[in-house]
């Protein structure tokens, strides 16, 4: 089957686990999902490994590993990586956040400037050890 044949119009997951969801509209509640690929997604009280969507309507009280979307609205969420064009949030936490427009409170370990600084530090350390090894 091709991806076009697998594409569902709508997928709802509640109180269960799923591996991969590929649909135009996805609603996930009290569930665990490995991967979601959707045009529009909503997630509440769930854990998702990878969420890729054009628009994320609302993510509430959930944990997302990697979140990539055009527009995202979050409330009390934890993320490893957020990549978005527009991020609206009420108390989100993330290791890395890359967004063009952020509205709300995001606590992040690394943003665009932090990633650049970390890259410079790691490059300096590698050059230092390379210099020592050649002596």
Tell me about this structure.
With 135 residues, the protein is of the alpha/beta class. The chain has one domain (3-134). Helix content is 20%, strand content 70%. A five-stranded parallel beta sheet has the order 1-2-3-4-5.
Fraction of residues in β-strands = over 45%
Q: Outline the low-pLDDT stretches.
A: 1-5
How many domains? The number is 1
If you compute it from the alpha carbons, what radius of gyration comes out, rounded to the nearest whole angstrom? 18 Å
How large is the count of helical segments?
Answer: 2
The strand order across the widest sheet is: 1-2-3-4-5
The overall strand count is: 5
What's the order of the H and E elements? HEEEEEH
Summed up:
The protein has 135 residues and is α/β, with parallel strands linked by helices. It contains 2 helices and 5 strands.
Features:
2 helices; alpha/beta; 5-stranded parallel β-sheet; disordered N terminus; single chain; 135 residues; 5 strands
Give me the secondary-structure topology.
Layout: H1 3-6, E1 8-14, E2 17-29, E3 32-44, E4 47-60, E5 63-110, H2 112-134
Parallel strand pairs: 1-2, 2-3, 3-4, 4-5
């Amino acid at each position: 089957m091709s991806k076009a044949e697998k594409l569902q119009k709508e997928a709802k997951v509640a109180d269960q686990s799923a591996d991969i969801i590929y649909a135009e509209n996805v609603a996930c509640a009290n569930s665990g999902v490995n991967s979601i690929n959707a045009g529009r997604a909503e997630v509440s009280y769930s854990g998702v490994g990878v969420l890729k969507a054009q628009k994320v309507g609302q993510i509430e009280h959930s944990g997302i590993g990697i979140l990539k979307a055009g527009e995202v609205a979050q409330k009390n969420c934890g993320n490893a990586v957020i990549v978005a064009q527009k991020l609206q949030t009420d108390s989100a936490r993330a290791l890395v956040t890359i967004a063009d427009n952020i509205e709300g409170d995001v606590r992040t370990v690394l943003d665009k400037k932090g990633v650049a600084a970390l890259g410079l530090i790691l490059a300096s350390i590698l050059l230092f050890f390379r210099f020592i090894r050649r002596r």
